[in-house]
Prior knowledge:
This protein is α/β, with parallel strands linked by helices. It folds into three domains: 87 residues, MurE/MurF, N-terminal domain (Udp-n-acetylmuramoylalanyl-d-glutamate--2,6- Diaminopimelate Ligase, Chain: A, domain 1), CATH 3.40.1390.10; 201 residues, Hexapeptide repeat proteins (UDP N-Acetylglucosamine Acyltransferase, domain 1, 3 Solenoid), CATH 2.160.10; 34 residues. Helices cover 15% and strands 27% of the residues. An eleven-stranded parallel beta sheet has the order 8-10-13-16-19-24-27-30-33-36-38, with no helix packed on it. Strands 9-11-14-17-20-25-28-31-34-37 form a ten-stranded parallel beta sheet, with no helix packed on it. An eight-stranded parallel beta sheet has the order 12-15-18-23-26-29-32-35, with no helix packed on it. A hairpin with a 2-residue loop joins β21 and β22. The longest helix is centred in the last third of the chain and has 21 residues. The model has no long low-confidence stretch (mean pLDDT 95).
Amino acid sequence: MPDPAGVVLSLADIAARLGGDVLGDGQTRIHQVATLASAGEGEIGFLANLKYRSQLQTTRASAVILAPEFAEAVSLPRIVCKNPYAYYARLATLLNPVAAATPGIHPSAASASPLPASASIGAQVSIGAGVELGEGVLIHPGCVIGDGVAIGDGSVLHPNVTIYAGCRIGHRAIVHAGAVIGADGFGFAPDHGQWVKIPQIGRVIIGDDVEIGANTTIDRGALDDTQIGDGCKIDNQIQIGHNCIVGKHCVIAACSAIAGSATLQDNVIVGGAAMIAGHVTIASGVVISGGSLVMKNITKPGQYTSVFPLEEHSHWLHNAAQIRHLAKLAERVSELEKTLKNTNTKG
């Protein structure tokens, strides 16, 4: 949670820390960020989406953040920068510092491992043997950390996170409530109508500066490790199967599911509720639209969509019925083209 005491800075102070050019009164005092529509006195709005441009004329914000091409679109005090959305994100962090955790171990916590004096361990936390915690780690109440887990400096585990044995989490990770890291992957071998469980002997290895959303599950590898690269941002209620490799700085939106042994290379963006089949590889720089189903490798960067467009239901049924006959239609067109070609040749 942000520190309730808050921070108040002038535009000049903000620009000195974060960059950007100040136009208008640099001594304008700012205590919070807000949307153009909701901002009031002492708050700074931002224009990151052109559909809100008209709100520049009606906003009650004390100042705004703008890209250079809109620097003269309003007379309010303003900060001009190349990326207003990223600037807003950094300013929101600056104005809303997280209250520092108090080091110490709650009396109800249980640990079979020595813990650094800088760690903050909440109520009812269970920590197994051979665990390595970095400096300044914050573990909220109810978390369970299995044997041999390693968690890097400055990482935060919110309430009721479970980290299974042997998994490793890098520096400055944020794992939100209810996430489960390192549960068994879904591995069973068919045998005469029955299913034989395959022991999942790999781990989950998570890089630095990764954020994992609430109730997300990342399964341990069957043989090799499941890997999440540095800087990844993984939303709530996502399933990542065993042996998946997610490259650096990928973003995966809520309710997506990635089947086992899939590989996402660096800087892949996955929209909400997308489904990625097992054993496929997605190239760096690919964007998957929300709700899409990926069944084969994607080898070139770009945006990919497999969602059938939304429309009134009766129209959707009619179009869906036609899709079922596309293969036959293509064959008929091919036959007609051949007939037409033969006719023209004879003529």
